[in-house]
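Final report, Chapter 2: Outcomes

The project's central promise was a pipeline that accepts a single protein chain and returns its three-dimensional structure in a standardized token representation, suitable for archiving and comparison. That pipeline is now operational. To close this chapter, we reproduce one record exactly as it appears in the project archive, with the input sequence first and the structure output second.
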Amino acid sequence: TIVLLLGMVPAGLAAAEGAARLNPYLSLACAAHFLQPQLGDDGEVLYEGPRASASSLGFYLERPFTIVTEEPGPAAGTLNEETALEHMRAEHPVYLIIDKERVPHWQRLLTERFHIYHQLATCGSHVVLNNHQ
């Protein structure tokens, strides 16, 4: 029975990965797969949301990303909103993944500060923004 149970582990993991890829509402895999070929050597990814929600992004993106939160703690890899806006000023590509409900907020912030708003993709309940078109 132990051999049978151990044999089911790969099947269970494959099913979980398949569900994550097929259902972008449960995972950030769609956003990661969209961004991966666009990042190049110097692309930067910011994700606005809780660290727990970003776990799939870390798995699929294959590179570090920064979490944007209202109150960044002492943990590395977090920024507040104001610092994230400063990152969006960079010469290199910066991609910001946000929840769809936050689009009006970020659209207002970006257009007030930079007079641009680039929405590149929608992945389930998330939207990918960019500082350069």
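Archive annotation: DSSP finds five helices and six strands in the chain.
This record, like all others produced under the grant, will remain available to the consortium after the project formally closes.
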